[in-house]
Amino acid sequence: MSGETTGADRIRGLVEADAVVQLEIAGAIAHGAGHWPPEKVTETCALEAVKLAAADTGRLRVAMEHVLMGRDVDSALEWLRTTTALGVLFPELAATVDLVQETGRQHKDVWAHTKQVVRQTVGRPLVRWAALLHDIGKVPTRTFTDDGVHFHGHAEVGARMFDKIYPRFAFARDERQTIRFLVKHHLRTNQYSEAWTDSAVRRFHREMGPHMIDLLDLSRADITSKRPGRRKTLLEQISALSDRVEVLVEADSKLPPLPPGVGNALMDAFEIPPSRLVGDLMRVLKNSIESNQLEARREDAYYVAYLARQDLVPNLDPQKRAALIEAGGDLSAPDDPEGPHRGVDPDDPSPGVLSCGHDPDNDPCVHRDADPDDPELRR
Prior knowledge:
The protein is mainly α and 379 residues long. The protein has helices at 3-17, 21-30, 39-48, 57-68, 73-82, 85-89, 91-94, 110-120, 125-133, 138-141, 154-165, 173-184, 198-208, 212-221, 228-253, 262-270, 276-290, 300-310, 318-328; strands at residues 142-145, 148-151.
């Protein structure tokens, strides 16, 4: 019996005794130049893959994360697909294999795109998890029209699909919230253009919060065009957004959060004299700005309307309160041409992205100057 056969038999025995060993083999592939094990081992894993459904979720999380963090993760993921382990752990991902992204053109399917994105993503575990799952929503949202293939709202749908995936792995609450957020918002940078006002950029920064760096890195990895010029253009777009955020954050840090005269505006609007109440209202505004509930340095009516909505001034006439709220307008930036950054899902109206896939109504993924013959824009 050859040494290779003996080694394969030993690994087969380990796989039969412990299903998670399959993921450990995938981890060895990911961290070992992408070399697959002997065919007999692969065949055994295919027979034993179904047992992964009953494996300990904590061990699955650790083993799968080790796979994702490997340099040759794309080869390891393809091996997991071959053994059917992918279909057991991630049927949502297995469904993306051979999923056509455009009609009439031969290029990589959603699964091939996903493998490349994961490999290109920065080496932070939660970002790589998000990269793995960022396009699962394309399966249930794919539609065909005379204009081509569309995936309207796939980011939001994918985020909801993740809610059924995370129980299979031992994620802490904050970890699964981060992954879900990145999946849901992975197209947000596609909307950016130089036409965005400073208010729009500030709002993007506020809404992305602590996830902004991860989101920008995921967006960079989500560029899979083979054309260097196109890739350079898209990367520059993301960098321009990042730079504008940095400049505004630095500038804002040097200025007080409330413009001068707000206190007087509050006394005039609510018809109250200088008092402790005015100081309390000013503290509410400052705390709300610090917690990102309000924007800094907006017009007086904006802050008056916010306090009126909170009903913090005692004995305020209801009609007066309604008038102050109306005068303040929408709490979103009034000069923001992008609108309130709402998602397309009516059941999930939190800030989101529009859609991707050359949607004729929204179409935020294809710039007006994009080359129509480039089939591999950012997916």
